Amino acid sequence: MKITTKTAHFTSPLYLESGRILEPYDIKYETYGTLNEKKDNVVLVCHALSGSHHAAGFYEGDKKPGWWDGLIGDGKAIDTQKYFVICSNTIGSCFGSTGPMSPQYPSNEPYRLRFPVITIKDMVKAQKQLLSSLGIHQLHAIIGGSMGGMQALQFGVDYPHFAKKIIALASTYATRPWAIAFNKVAMEAIRRDPRFKNGNYHPDDFKEHGLDGLAIGRIAGHISYLSPASMEKKFGRAYVATDGLFELFGRYEVERYMEYNTNNFAKMFDPLSYLYIIKAINTFNLSRGYGSLYDAINRIESEINLISFKGDMLFFPQEMEHIANMLKRVNKKYNYVEIDSDYGHDAFLVEIEKFDFIIKDILEGKK
Predict the structure, then answer these.
(1) Which of 189, 218, 224, 282 is least surrounded by Cβ atoms within 10 Å, i.e. has the fewest?
(2) Which residues are catalytic?
(3) CA 28 to chain centroid
(4) Do residues 273 and 343 share a domain?
């Protein structure tokens, strides 16, 4: 599989939904496979909150591949021998695209809290600019899970004729209070951490020890990505062998797992980017700017494919089913499937074998 990683620089203004302007801005992106002469074999992959442009394959020295490697590659569901796959890092993130710790032109000082609030619509508009700059004006498909699914659906509403097929997994039509509440834990934990310094930290401050507030917030997020059944199956009531049961801070295995994963995350993800991205997730509402959800969905011309997961406790299957019912109501072409899974929200990243064949059939027009 051919992998290419680049950064596109844009000097033209990006007009944001808030009324603010981002100028100039960068988008880091990765491509897999080969673009055909007609440029009609393009599949855009949109990442979730903590994802990046590195969706598949290995970088030199890596122990882990890109975040959706099980789905993208030669002979896989998103077959890079057939399709030219593009995945870009969203604006606001911390993996190469312009975000809050990027320099605010014309100075070299980071934006920090001066960075404008961005939305899912803004992320989509920036990606549309990237694709136009590459001479790509129609896509075979757009696919994403969670926040990536929000972007895929937003593409369908904002640019009705841009993609033939849209595939959204484990997503929603508007972020509900339950998900916003989990994000509130992260926001307050970060803001109240003294080392956060109201965003006035040095970019390297957390590389060695991480930010405790982000680690705590990520624990709340991680709980929402799993389910009671998957936690029971994975950990049960196992206790850490080296900890005493009657030590106040002795841990169950589930606690140790949360500590390990979230502490590592807090060393590699920028806390300001985390705040800006969860704000974008919280404000997501497919109907905003169109009067109603009916009006928004009525704009769609792409074939919409919705995949939910039974055990998802962040974006519940009922939310995806509601989109399906709306699509049916306005006579749009759609498919909806609920995957039997008790893993939780992260099933779209982990249990690929339960839906990769569905993705393959959709892309090949067999669904």
Answers:
(1) 282
(2) 146, 312, 345
(3) 15
(4) no
State both tokens at 363.
Answer: 């892309």
| Size of the chain, expressed as the number of residues it contains | 367
Same domain for 224 and 193? Answer: yes
pLDDT tens, 246-264?
999 999 999 999 999 999 9
Provide the whole-model pTM.
0.97
Burial 21-42 (b: 16+ CB within 10 A, else e): ebeebbbbbbbbbebeeeeebb
Is the same domain home to 342 and 211? Answer: no
Tell me, what CATH number does 217's domain have? 1.10.1740.110
| Domain containing residue 230 | 182-279
What's the number of domains the chain is made of?
2
pLDDT in tens, 121-161: 999 999 999 999 999 999 999 999 999 999 999 999 999 99
Residue with the two structure tokens 């951490």: 193
